[in-house]
Specification:
The structure is a single chain. This protein has 358 residues and is of the alpha/beta class. The protein is built from twelve helices and eleven strands. α3 packs parallel to α4 and α10 packs parallel to α12. The model has no long low-confidence stretch (mean pLDDT 96). The protein binds 4'-deoxy-4'-aminopyridoxal-5'-phosphate (PMP).
Length: 358
């Protein structure tokens, strides 16, 4: 093979998704376990066959005009401040692309979302990974200290994947005001709908107040559309314009646009599901603590067991004893991330956790 790949790809890990095993309970990818809402399935079927407007023989609306308007209304922001992407992970990549390149730095906590180092390195920029505190929270003072003249972007994930901990408004405001205002600060709120902490930062409000702050949200988790890939960013219109420049054309397909519009209109059906996830999260947290595990307080739809290098053994035990797939990050800063599923699924995981020989 003589093709020359860019050196930025050397040693770059491929993103490792949560595994699906036939017949097993999957608590590995932070999805909701309820089936698709019937009106969403219906809207997708109708749109697929609608040859007069936007059937799948036609390209989708490139700017997703209706969806952008609905999202703008949902977050109570002008539509010029909204942009959609093929999942919020695509927007993470676009955000790095618009500000960083060879030799630049991108700062984020660690652990945090596994895609941050990948989307950083593919641009040629260097990830600067700042350890979380002893209680598994992002260390905002250390994040601010890590900024150098090469820093172009900072990811702040709240609730943080995988630790579940949140960033509070006062500490995030302090960070934003300490950091140079030409650094793009990305508040990633993929799990926002499960966050019941009244002190949690609100990325949309902060983005409205500070032009270098962007917030990212997704329809993959709370809106149950992980398979269709829709995420959005709320940002200053100049950032929205830059994000559109680097977007792959038609990245949000027509079925995804229709499904997202329908799911957004289904707040009354979805909100009880989110409340059920929160109740199960709190039950699972208490049960795991009772069984002797350290469990940071989570505001997401998953919990984190900071088991370090023992993470792989725990995940294997869950799979072999109860056919439950959890997500292991088996290294020194690692642990196991367990998605909150239906009560019976969580019970199977708890059964495995209680029988884990430690
Ligand atoms: N941000 C965070 C913190 C996540 O955990 C995820 C999904 N694992 C994403 C962004 C991306 O989600 P999606 O691309 O499905 O919108």
């Amino acid at each position: 093979m003589t093709v020359r790949f860019r050196s930025a790809l050397d040693g770059l890990p491929a993103y490792a998704p949560g595994r699906s095993v036939p017949g097993a309970v999957k608590l590995a990818s932070n999805e909701l376990s309820w089936p698709t809402l019937p009106q969403v399935a219906e809207a997708i079927a109708v749109a697929a066959g609608d040859e007069h407007t936007r059937g799948i023989n036609r390209y989708p609306d490139n700017t997703a005009e209706h969806l952008v308007s609905a999202l703008a209304e949902h977050v109570d922001q002008p539509r010029e401040r909204l942009v959609v992407g093929g999942g919020s992970v695509a927007l993470c990549q676009q955000l790095v692309q618009i500000v960083a390149g060879d030799g630049d730095e991108v700062v984020f906590g660690w652990r945090s979302f596994e895609a941050y180092p990948i989307v950083t390195q593919i641009t040629g920029a260097r990830p600067v990974m700042v350890p979380v505190t002893g209680d598994h929270r992002l260390d905002l003072a250390a994040l601010a200290d890590a900024v150098t003249e090469r820093t172009r972007l900072m990811f702040v994930c709240t609730p943080n994947n995988p630790t579940g901990t949140v960033v509070h408004t006062d500490e995030l405001v302090e960070l934003i005001e300490r950091v140079r205002d030409d650094v793009l600060i990305v508040v990633d709120e993929a799990y926002r709908e499960f966050d019941t902490d009244p002190d949690s930062a609100d990325g949309v409000a902060l983005a409205a107040r500070y032009p270098n702050v962007v917030t990212l949200r997704t329809l993959s988790k709370a809106y149950q559309l992980a398979g269709l890939r829709v995420g959005y960013a709320v940002a200053d219109p100049s950032i929205v314009t830059a994000l559109r420049k680097v977007a792959i054309p038609f990245a949000v397909n027509s079925l995804a646009q229709v499904a997202a519009l329908t799911a957004l209109a289904a707040q009354t059906e979805l909100a009880p599901r989110w409340r059920a996830v929160v109740a199960e999260r709190d039950r699972v947290t208490a049960a795991l603590r009772e069984a002797g595990f350290e469990v940071p307080t989570s505001q997401a739809n998953f919990v984190w067991l900071p088991l370090g290098t023992r993470a792989a053994a725990f995940a294997e035990h869950c799979e072999t004893t109860e056919k439950v797939i959890v997500r292991a990050f088996p290294d020194a800063t690692g642990g196991v991330r367990i998605t909150i599923g239906a009560p019976q699924e969580n019970d199977r995981m708890l059964q495995a956790a209680r029988s884990w020989p430690r």
